[in-house]
Amino acid sequence: QVQLQESGPGLVKPSQTLSLTCTVSGDSISRGSYSWTWIRQPAGKGLEWIGRMYVTGSTHYKPSLNSRVGISVDTSKNQFTLNLSSVTAADTAIYYCARGRSGYGIVYYDSWGQGTLVTVSS
Amino acid sequence: QSVLTQPPSVSGAPGQRVSISCTGSSSNIGAFYDVHWYQQLPGRAPRLLICGNTDRPSGVPDRFSGSKSGTSASLVITGLQAEDEADYYCQSYDSSLTDLVFGTGTTVTVL
What is the least distance, in Å, from the CA of B51 to any CA of chain A? Predict the structure, then answer.
């Protein structure tokens, strides 16, 4: 059974870049046509999709974040990474990595990491 | 503010039936995009509950069911149990926003 685990700094200063890594275990990140995704959730609020990538290199980001976000994959380490630049307090949230699957009209997320809290503060 | 609207909260006694709506528009649910549902227990990551409008992944109890009609979708819990206390989110795609979207979320309380 695949497992995902987020890691990275819990505190980031305003205007800096938030970087998080998701380590995938139990399956190869290169196998299948999965999409590897980041989703966030501000405290007490709903879920917000950030973006996804396929191991082919194809990416798709939330339009409102497109100028600040990047997702990359390291197949040798079975990891994928989120970079979010020029962060502000509004980027404070729990960040989840997730595996996306197709098979219906749109992707659904069948495996999630436990989430990691990132606070943007000086 | 999400383009998929859910009631903030619903409640029911153990054993009762509760329904959660997910209301969209012609650019998302009404445009024939599928709806998926997730359950988020307190302090936990979301868990896939329903995919493709009606399908339950392996391990999801059959008291959970989903449906879709027009510009709305619904999640029904039949035979509510204490462990069903959680937040529930619908998910679809919006062609106007060119964005994957989650619903506003609904908190289910077992009385």
Answer: 7
